[in-house]
Amino acid sequence: MTDTEKATNFIFQAINEDLESKRFTGNVITRFPPEPNGYLHIGHAKSICLNFGMRDEFPGAVCHLRLDDTNPSTESMEFVEAIKENVQWLGFDWGDNIFYASDYFQDFYDYAIKLIELGKAYVCDLDPDQIRETRGTLTSPGTDSPFRNRTTEENLELFSRMKSGEFQDGEKVLRAKIDMKSPNLNMRDPALYRIRHVAHYRTGDDWCIYPMYDFAHCISDSIEQITHSICTLEFEDHRPLYDWILGTLELFHPRQIEFPRLNITKTVLSKRNLLSLVNSSVVEGWDDPRMPTLAGLRRRGYTPKSIKDFCSRVGLTKRDSVIEIQLLEHCLREDLNSHSPRRLVVIDPLKVVIDNFDENRVEIFEANNNPEDSSSGTRSIPFTKYIYIERSDFQVNPQNKFYRFYPGNEVRLRYAYIAKCVSFDTNPDSGEIEAIHCEVDFDSKGGMPADGRRIRGTIHWVSQQDSVDGTVKHFDYLLADDESSDGLTSSQNSQSIYEAAKFESCLLESTPGEVFQFERLGYYCRDLTDSESGKMVFNQTVSLRDSWSRINKA
User: Fold this and answer.
1) What is the radius of gyration, based on Cα positions, of the chain?
2) Phi then psi for 490, rounded to 5 degrees?
3) Please, which contacts does 161-164 make with residues 24 or more away whose CB atoms are closer than 8 Å?
4) Please, are residues 436 and 421 in contact by the beta-carbon 8 Å criterion?
5) All domains of the chain in start order, with CATH
6) Where does the pLDDT of residue 318 fall: very low under 50, low under 70, confident under 90, or very high at 90 and above?
7) Are strands 191-195 and 410-413 parallel, antiparallel or unpaired?
8) For 209-275, what is the HEC assignment?
9) Taking a C-beta distance cutoff of 8 angstroms, is the pair 344, 520 a contact?
10) Which of 33, 72, 100 lies closest to 207 in space, CA to CA?
11) Cross-strand pairs, 462
């Protein structure tokens, strides 16, 4: 983050004000508090970078990783481990500061008892629909529950019986006693505890009542002595309840500050909808390369540096906005271009026969591993009589401004020779082009004609003798439209699989997770899962085309 960004960051400004006024003593303490009910996605990266990045701005700052696990019906250790792995993959470390809201279940219960004793909470028998109906609207006040004036003794007894498991799910709920006429609907006697006869992944069957998020969250912050509770904007209307609970209980009181959540075009960032995509098998799982989860982005070939750069460029404002996904892709290209090795790969191969090249002749050409990095060196590429090119690089009847192979046209073969198409072979049954025949100009080694004639097209290729087989997966956006959405209007063509791709043989030495630039095609990552068995499976990371740069220049 630049000095200018720091100076204009309203969250940093607020923290500096608190430090100057000595509102808090000691170091700045923040927390990243995901609920372990799914995998982290790109939207969470913004919060991760902000909270764990505090140490760069405020010496001695600490960020806790807290799993807000108060809803046993949706949470699991799988999600906990995935969250921890993703935070570490981004490059952040919580040290010894990992906490679980479930560690505080007894504390939550004791504080609920205290609210009852203070006359600030009561057991209500209304079901969720009835509570919703009596809450009122933004323009009309709510209606008091008929159970609102139960005595302290009755409330304590009923709450104890809730804890002991005497009631069924939804039969009773503990509510705060605040103000049913409040202009803020969150202050109209919100629920604090509900009954859930579901085993918790950490505490088992010890509890059958669980605190609501608004109750548990603020108390967890207080217990951990969090100085600044950084939340997304949807919690702004919940801040009065946060303050009311801590103030009523007279607990250590962090300052809550809200920032806009990250919204990206063509991207689903709702955990509920991401779970639906997984459960309905629209995707292969949480780490599907099409998913905006950090696990999916990692498997696709995204780098921690590119994601952190993206979050930095997005910055912090006080208003919600929608960020073009092209900015994220631009950040990725910038990073990958600097260090990704170049390789030749043909995804949809068409055989080429070099008619004037001897059957047993093998010629070696040198190719740069990365022209952006002189230290990366070169590699040897064999050229033989039989090679493969992309099927799209040949047309029998060329379109206007088609500069690749067609009968009679010359094309520069990358790193090798200029070749002229002289004929082609067609399958008599299907009519499909089976092979094309060319002749190379031996005086054009390296692609430079001796007579200086102009060659307008350059294409890539691989030698049949040297190539290895594998699979390439191409991806489109999951959302069919141009806008960010929490809906599930998924694209029906979000994945294309090419199972007959031809690779440079040196790619056999690549490792799962390694990213390469396939020349003329884009950046590709060897799959972390499917490649474990030794198979050559590469996922398209991002194309070479950078629309964001063009947009900015316009």
Assistant:
1) 31
2) -80, 150
3) 162/123, 162/193, 162/195, 162/208, 162/209, 163/109, 163/207, 163/208, 163/209
4) yes
5) 3-261 (3.40.50.620), 271-341+469-553 (1.10.1160.10), 345-460 (2.40.240.10)
6) confident
7) unpaired
8) EEECHHHHHHHHHHHCCCCEEEEEHHHHHHHHHHHHHHHHHCCCCCEEEEECCCEECCCCCCHHHHH
9) no
10) 72
11) 388
Tokens of 382: 């064999």
Tokens of residue 457, six digits: 């097209």
* Burial class of residue 218 (count of CB atoms within 10 Å of its CB; 0-12, 13-18, 19+): buried
In this predicted structure, the answer to whether residue 6 has a pLDDT above a threshold of 50 is: no
| Tokens representing residue 238 in the block | 């919940």
Whole-model pTM: value is 0.92
pLDDT reported for residue 521: 96
Contact of 517 with 337, CB cutoff 8 Å: yes
Element (H, E) at 90: none
Half-sphere exposure of 410 (CA within 13 A, CB side): 15
Q: Are 352 and 386 in contact (CB under 8 A)?
A: yes
Q: Which residues are within 8 A (CB) of 140 and not within 5 positions of it... i.e. 6 or more apart?
A: none
* Beta bridge mates, 364: 382
SS3 string of 382-449? EECCEEEEEHHHECCCCCCCCCCECCCCEEEECCCCEEEEEEEEECCCCCCEEEEEEEEECCCHHHCC
Secondary structure element (H or E) that encloses residue 280, with its range: none
Q: CA 203, CA 105: separation in Å to the nearest integer?
A: 9
**DSSP type of residue 205:** T
Tell me the pLDDT tens digit for each residue of 463-496. 999 999 999 999 998 886 654 445 555 555 789 9
Neighbours of 519 (CB within 10 A): 18
Question: Are the C-beta atoms of residues 362 and 465 closer than 8 Å to each other?
Answer: yes
**Is residue 268 within 8 Å of 282, Cβ to Cβ?**
no
Q: CA 155, 158, 161 angle in degrees (round to 5)?
A: 150
Q: Is the pLDDT of residue 128 over 90?
A: yes
Closest CA to 187 of 247, 127, 118: 247
Residues with catalytic annotation?
A: 35, 261, 271
CA 72/CA 487 separation, integer angstroms: 25
pLDDT of residue 5: 45
